[in-house]
Design brief:
single chain, about 325 residues, mainly alpha, Serine Threonine Protein Phosphatase 5, Tetratricopeptide repeat, two-stranded antiparallel ribbon, 17 helices, 2 strands, elongated
């Protein structure tokens, strides 16, 4: 997991220089503060890449070396793993160009100080956003009993197949709010914005709509908004702790967060509720393998034949 305090430590160490971006008295003092602030920002970016387990190993190993990983390549690496936003990447590039200009003998400008302060604020926010692990320990999902019946969706996670969950929306009563079918179709087509709008409307009408909460969790997770995904999935499991689709989605969320043991617990609960669903077995075995649990191979032998076929093929 990324430690935000470690990544942002260079900014803390150069706090005095960063403060002088707004209190400088001379152009020379501004230039000195600008360069020092940029150096701190660059060190934080390099620590960000070095701490990012989703980055390629060779990139992580070279992250601390400006020679092996120049700034342009550094920013590209952070963008490839979606660790920084496109606007921040653009601002970082502009700030680097301003520092190059100052290093070349030009005086820093007041606008350069504003740009540096903006970059630092954005960087801190984005580092903390992507490195925050939501409070979704397995125990959190067993405290509340179901409070309402709801329609269910079904979706089989299988190799190279996307089977859209249909029919569940038709089970909803007409007076239960917006029809979910268009939102589900938009999700299947990859139009996450339209899908999210439909599911948000359903939740606004009925906060216990587990199907809508489940799909919002899926959308947030695909957008790497892990904390938002955890929030809606926590609501869904409070409504129905036994829903295997919600448990399975929680399993994938934990896998994304690098917590395979917690993921295995969620997949196991999904498997107990829906033992014939291949996706539950596949998630469970993958999580156990990721956790280095030797029971993974025993569970593979117990799994349905189609699960063994998928995992044996690397699917």
């Amino acid at each position: 997991m990324i430690d935000p305090d470690r990544v942002l430590r260079p900014l803390r160490e150069e706090a005095a220089a960063i403060d002088r971006l707004s209190t400088y008295r001379t152009p020379a003092e501004l230039s000195e503060s600008l360069v020092a602030s940029w150096r701190a920002v660059e060190r934080s970016l390099r620590l960000f890449v070095r701490s990012d387990e989703s980055a390629p190993a060779d990139v992580r190993m070279s992250a601390l070396s400006p020679t092996d990983l120049p700034v342009d390549a550094l920013l590209a690496a952070l963008r490839r793993t979606d660790r920084i936003s496109l606007p921040l990447a653009g601002r970082l590039h502009e700030l680097e160009q301003a520092v190059r200009r100052v290093d070349g003998g030009s005086d820093a400008r007041p606008a350069d100080a504003d740009a540096a302060a903006d970059v630092i604020e954005r960087l801190e926010a984005e580092v903390r956003r992507v490195s925050t692990v939501p409070d979704v320990a397995p125990a959190d999902f067993v405290e509340e009993a179901p409070v309402a019946e709801h329609g269910r969706s079904s979706r089989v996670f299988f190799v190279l197949l996307i089977v859209v969950a249909t029919g569940a929306a038709w089970l909803l009563f007409a007076d239960r709010g917006p029809d979910l079918e268009p939102a589900i179709a938009a999700f299947a087509a990859g139009d996450l914005a339209d899908a999210a709008a439909g599911f948000h409307a359903a939740v606004a009408h009925d906060s216990t709509n587990v199907t809508a909460l489940l799909y919002l969790g899926r959308i947030h997770r695909r957008e790497r908004r892990h904390e938002d995904a955890a929030t809606v999935l926590r609501k869904a499991v409070a409504v129905d702790p036994e829903d295997p689709h919600v448990r399975r989605e929680l399993g994938w969320l934990f896998m994304d967060l690098g917590s395979p043991r917690s993921a295995a617990e969620q997949f196991e609960q999904a498997r107990e509720a829906e033992p014939d669903e291949p996706a539950n077995w596949i998630g469970l075995i993958r999580a156990l393998r990721a956790a280095g649990d030797p029971s993974a191979e025993q569970r593979l032998r117990e799994a349905p034949p189609e699960v063994r076929a998928v995992l044996a093929s690397g699917g």
